[in-house]
């Protein structure tokens, strides 16, 4: 039986996820808006975070595994002076360090900034990072965050990540409430005002990086403790915030039309592929051969790249992703995306073989 073809257009739907919404909720809403079950996401974004969330619709869901492993950019606010259980503003307060903060704020502004930048430099470039204990990484089959929330002490192994940018835009000293359990009234909490320093930063990093762990580690280096108070993702690979649509507006249009939207502001499948991969313009004969699963002459210089699927867990969750290295997108003369291709060696001969076919069993002659 022939596989049922997806209904409606295919492409990437880039949304500016609002705070308080899970990525799963965003997928569910988009299924109703687009009128198709074939919607997926390229890695989750924490409910408290905002910004770029990439959804694949219909045929474009096939591209999502390649997007998960792309490098990313975030705007964030790091609060120095208070530690939390989850290393972000959602977790309970676990420690405050007013003396260390006052030692910094006692410097003149330029000295304080210079000291913070010295610490930032230690967290830039190729580093080893211990993932956040409240990550989705599994330990003996159980998510790390589940172990932490059950009261278990979790220690994860450091792993290599790359911080290509860690820019400090502003450093602001002030006060914030430090909330702890009242020692005299069990079950009750009390708040006191403690000095803090808020740093507004931009971080560009490899997949697998935890921004909350950067906040934690910056606080460790400075002796102040630290946690993340705001996070906004502005880029995933070549997809940027300017590509994003407002999900609430799309939802409202869907309700008003009483039918799935046919004019979604999609990043078309072909344009998405050109952004993610190198492009190869195929002849009609080559496009037809690839469509039927046949191999053609090698792409580029004929080199063969060994690729693998990687497991990744960062602020985008724990998912698998495939490397884009060695992959090119093959386009028919009419601009149709036919398939993703990679050079493979068989019986001593290198040829370009289809990795993922979008237009199967079609003649372009």
From TrEMBL:
<comment type="function">
    <text>Responsible for synthesis of pseudouridine from uracil-55 in the psi GC loop of transfer RNAs.</text>
</comment>
<dbReference type="Pfam" id="PF01509">
    <property type="entry name" value="TruB_N"/>
</dbReference>
<protein>
    <recommendedName>
        <fullName>tRNA pseudouridine synthase B</fullName>
        <ecNumber>5.4.99.25</ecNumber>
    </recommendedName>
</protein>
<feature type="domain" description="Pseudouridine synthase II N-terminal">
    <location>
        <begin position="31"/>
        <end position="211"/>
    </location>
</feature>
<keyword id="KW-0819">tRNA processing</keyword>
<dbReference type="InterPro" id="IPR036974">
    <property type="entry name" value="PUA_sf"/>
</dbReference>
<dbReference type="InterPro" id="IPR014780">
    <property type="entry name" value="tRNA_psdUridine_synth_TruB"/>
</dbReference>
<dbReference type="GO" id="GO:0031119">
    <property type="term" value="P:tRNA pseudouridine synthesis"/>
</dbReference>
<comment type="similarity">
    <text>Belongs to the pseudouridine synthase TruB family. Type 1 subfamily.</text>
</comment>
<dbReference type="GO" id="GO:0160148">
    <property type="term" value="F:tRNA pseudouridine(55) synthase activity"/>
</dbReference>
<dbReference type="InterPro" id="IPR002501">
    <property type="entry name" value="PsdUridine_synth_N"/>
</dbReference>
<dbReference type="GO" id="GO:0003723">
    <property type="term" value="F:RNA binding"/>
</dbReference>
<feature type="domain" description="tRNA pseudouridylate synthase B C-terminal">
    <location>
        <begin position="212"/>
        <end position="272"/>
    </location>
</feature>
<dbReference type="InterPro" id="IPR032819">
    <property type="entry name" value="TruB_C"/>
</dbReference>
<dbReference type="InterPro" id="IPR020103">
    <property type="entry name" value="PsdUridine_synth_cat_dom_sf"/>
</dbReference>
<dbReference type="GO" id="GO:1990481">
    <property type="term" value="P:mRNA pseudouridine synthesis"/>
</dbReference>
<dbReference type="Pfam" id="PF16198">
    <property type="entry name" value="TruB_C_2"/>
</dbReference>
<feature type="active site" description="Nucleophile">
    <location>
        <position position="46"/>
    </location>
</feature>
<keyword id="KW-0413">Isomerase</keyword>
């Amino acid at each position: 039986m022939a596989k049922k073809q997806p209904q409606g257009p295919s492409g990437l739907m880039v949304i500016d996820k609002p705070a308080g919404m899970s990525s799963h909720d965003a997928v569910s809403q988009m299924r109703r808006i687009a009128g198709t079950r074939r919607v997926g996401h390229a890695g989750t974004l924490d409910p408290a975070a905002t910004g770029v969330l990439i959804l694949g619709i219909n045929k474009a869901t096939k591209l999502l595994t390649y997007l998960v492993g792309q490098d990313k950019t975030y705007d964030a606010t790091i609060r120095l002076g208070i530690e939390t259980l989850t290393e972000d503003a959602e977790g309970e307060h676990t420690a405050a360090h007013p003396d260390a903060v006052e030692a910094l704020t006692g410097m003149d502004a330029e000295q304080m900034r210079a000291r913070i930048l010295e610490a930032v430099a230690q967290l830039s470039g190729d580093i080893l990072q211990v993932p956040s204990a409240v990550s989705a990484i599994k330990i003996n089959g159980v998510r790390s965050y589940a172990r932490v929330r059950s009261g278990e002490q979790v220690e994860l192994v450091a792993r290599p990540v790359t911080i290509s940018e860690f820019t400090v835009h502003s450093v602001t000293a002030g006060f914030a409430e430090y909330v702890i359990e009242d020692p005299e009234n069990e079950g009750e909490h009390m708040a006191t005002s403690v000095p803090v320093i808020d740093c507004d930063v931009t971080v560009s990093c490899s997949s697998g990086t935890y921004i909350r762990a950067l906040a934690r580690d910056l606080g460790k280096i400075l002796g102040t403790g630290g946690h993340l108070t705001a996070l906004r993702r502005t880029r995933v690979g070549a997809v940027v915030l300017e590509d994003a649509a407002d999900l609430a507006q799309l939802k409202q249009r869907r309700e008003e039309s009483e039918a799935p939207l046919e004019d979604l502001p999609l990043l078309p499948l072909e344009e998405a592929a050109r952004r993610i991969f190198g492009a190869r313009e195929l002849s009609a004969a080559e496009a037809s051969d690839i469509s039927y699963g046949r191999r053609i002459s090698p792409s580029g210089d004929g080199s063969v790249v060994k690729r693998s699927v990687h497991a990744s867990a960062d602020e985008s969750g724990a998912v698998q992703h495939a490397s884009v290295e060695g992959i090119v997108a093959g386009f028919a003369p009419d601009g149709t995306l036919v398939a993703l291709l990679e050079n493979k060696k068989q019986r001593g001969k290198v040829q370009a073989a289809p990795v993922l076919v979008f237009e199967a069993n079609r003649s372009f002659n």
